[in-house]
Amino acid sequence: MTAEAMTTQAVSTATVRDLYPTRGAAEVSVPRQDPVVWGSPDTPGPIANADLQAFERDGFLPVDQLITDDEVAVYRRELDRLVADPAIRADERSIVEPQSQEIRSVFEVHRISEVFAKLVRDERVVGRARQILGSDVYVHQSRINVKPGFGASGFYWHSDFETWHAEDGLPNMRTVSVSIALTENLDTNGGLMIMPGSHRTFLGCAGATPKDNYKKSLQMQDAGTPSDAALTSMADEHGIRLFTGRAGSATWFDCNCMHGSGDNITPYPRSNVFIVFNSVENTAVDPFAAPIRRPDFIGARDFTPVR
Ligand code: 6CS
Ligand code: FE
Q: Is residue 145 in contact with ligand 1, taking CB distance under 6 Å?
């Protein structure tokens, strides 16, 4: 099927089995039924085999320096430009902090900014995604998270795939995210936390998805939030790893890792650019557990492969 044809086809979930039931009456966990690394050892790309094995085991792969200091400066300037642009603030792609009304995130930066579009196409980025997913890839979602200091709120524990399956209609776990630090990620300013190994269990959450859920969930997630009991048992089993790193470092993580981040009450912003690559073999169908799809700027419906 040509790339063009892929962007129009919308397969109803009637023809796609739901391997990962969620948002029903009760919380239920099932083992992962998908590979973690879909590529084979001879799939070309920048990741060494030992690192691919670590990604398979842990569900994440830190990279000390994915982009250079000079490149960080370019992307920081672009982030600052976007955040300062009144048209961007007025755009539905911008999500503000509930308290301060400062910009918290801007979505779809790979389409509204040529600077971030170039980052997505960079072989150091898309090459790693193709290697992990074992196929051509497209961007399911991109965002810049500003996480300014003095009280920016964090993101409570969740699995991204649980939302992308329930609300965006991604059938399988063949999706990988990269968070590239544009400011220093300290152990104090609300860094990413992941439970190592949690990607191998899918936790179906209790509670139906409200209509237009995204208008709230991107500020404070509710539907798709695990119970305290489930989080306690996962944390007891897997532990919690906090990711720190200099600007230019990055963390690749599997779509089903249980992760979150704390508030940032320090004076030091924790800004990153977050890109989600999905395999062209795993294109979005209808939502598996939501009344309507989320807008394209959150869950892409253009499946054109990144070239
Ligand atoms: O709902 C989503 O798609 C977004 N929410 C979070 C907290 N992480 C993944 C994604 O950016
Ligand atoms: Fe997330």
A: no
Residue 69 CA to its chain's centroid (Å): 24
The answer to whether position 38 is within a domain reads no
Is the CB of 272 within 6 Å of ligand 1?
no
What gap in Å lies between CA 195 and CA 193, rounded to an integer? 7
Residue pLDDT, tens place only, 123-174: 999 999 999 999 999 999 999 998 888 888 889 999 999 999 999 999 999 9
pTM of structure: 0.94
Which structural domain range is residue 123 located in? 58-279
Distances (CA, A) of 251 to 8, 237, 248, 254, 294: 32, 22, 10, 10, 26
CB 225 less than 6 A from any atom of ligand 1 = no
> Is residue 78 in contact with ligand 1, taking CB distance under 6 Å?
no
Token pair of 292, please? 């309507």
Closest ligand 1 atom to residue 177 Cα is 9
Question: Residue 272: helix, strand or coil by DSSP?
Answer: strand
How many CB atoms neighbour CB 96 within 10 A? 15
Which helix (H) or strand (E) segment holds residue 274: the answer is strand 272-279
Number of folded domains that form the chain? 1
Q: Which ligand is nearest to the CA of 108?
A: 1
Query: pLDDT per residue over 233-276, tens digit each?
Result: 999 999 999 999 999 999 999 999 999 999 999 999 999 999 99
Q: How far is the CA of 42 from the centre of ligand 1 (A)?
A: 32
Q: In this structure, is residue 15 part of a structural domain?
A: no
How many alpha carbons lie under 13 Å from residue 63 in its C-beta half-sphere?
23
Q: How confident is the model at residue 214 (pLDDT cuts 50, 70, 90)?
A: confident
Residue 159 in any domain: the answer is yes
Burial category of 143 from C-beta neighbours within 10 Å (exposed 0-12, middle 13-18, buried 19 and up): buried
